[in-house]
Design a protein that fits this description.
This protein is mainly beta and 266 residues long. It has 2 domains: 20-169, Jelly Rolls; 177-265, Immunoglobulins (Immunoglobulin-like, Sandwich). Helices cover 0% and strands 54% of the residues. It contains no helices and 21 strands. The protein has strands spanning 20-27, 37-38, 42-44, 47-51, 53-58, 62-63, 73-83, 92-99, 102-110, 117-126, 131-140, 146-150, 154-159, 167-169, 177-182, 185-192, 200-206, 212-219, 228-234, 241-249, 255-265. Strands 1, 3, 4, 7, 10, 12, 13 and 14 form an 8-stranded antiparallel β-sheet that branches. Strands 2, 5, 6, 8, 9 and 11 form a 6-stranded antiparallel β-sheet that branches. Strand 3 and strand 4 (47-51) form a beta hairpin.
Amino acid sequence: MKPFKTLLFTFLIPVLGVSQDCSQVYRFNISDKASYSTSCGTQEGSDWTVNKNSCNFYSPILNTGESPEKQPRRIDIRMRLTNSGTLDEKDFAWIFYYVDGKITSTKTLRGDQVEAVINYKDSIEVPSNSNFKLRIALVCDEADEYWRISNGDLTACVRAFDGEASQSQEPVMADKITVLKERNVVRLMWTAPGNPDGNYFMIERSKNGSQFEFAGYVKDNRNGSTASKYSFIDNGSFKPETWYRISHVDLGGKSSPFGKPVSVTF
C-alpha cells in the first residue's frame, strides 16, 4: 500500500456546502437506469463497484440549452469517489469530458496519489446549446482493490444565467453529519428520522479515511415517528486531520452506514 497524497485538482468540500443555481442538473441515481450506463462492474444496493477489473461509467447526453446571446455555458462537476485504500500506481480513475461527441479534456486520478475518499470538483466551459457527456474509466487489478460510486455521489450542473429558471445543485458532499470543532475537541451532530428505531449508533475515527477505529457509541432513543437529534463529543481526534463515520446498529445487531464519512482539519 502506497502513502496517500492529494491531487492538485481534488478539493475537500465543507460538510455543509453552498448550493449552485443551475438551469439543469444531472444526478446519478443507481435506481434510474436512464441516468447512467456501465460496461461492467457490480451493483449492490446503492453502490456500483469495480473490483479487479477495468470498467466504464457513462452519463447520458446532457444538452446545455440555448444561453442568452449564445454565451458559453459553464458546467460544474462534483463527484465523491471511494476506493479500497490499497490502490497503487497501476490503478487509476480516468475522467473524460465529451462535448458534441468529441473528447475535450481528461483528468487522471492515480491510485498511489489519492485518499480512500476522493471529493472531486471541476468546472468546464462549453458552447451554448451543446451536448455534454461524462465518461469515467475505473481500473484496478488486485482482488483487494476496488473503486466505488454510490447513489447521489455524482452531479453535473449547467450554470444558470440571470433571469433563467433555475434549480439547486445539492452538494454531493452534504452529509447527514455536522461537525463542530472547538479548542481541538470535535462534536458530531446528526438527526435521525423517527423510523426505523434501533439499538445504538457507533462512531469510528480514522487518520486517513480508510482504516477506522472505535471511538464510542450513542444510544438510539427513538420511538414512534418523531425525529431525534444526537451528538457525540470526541477528545481523541487525530492531528492534523480526523475522519469520522457513523453506523446505525439495529435491535438484531445488524449494522448499516448512517450518512457518509466526514472530516475535520485542525
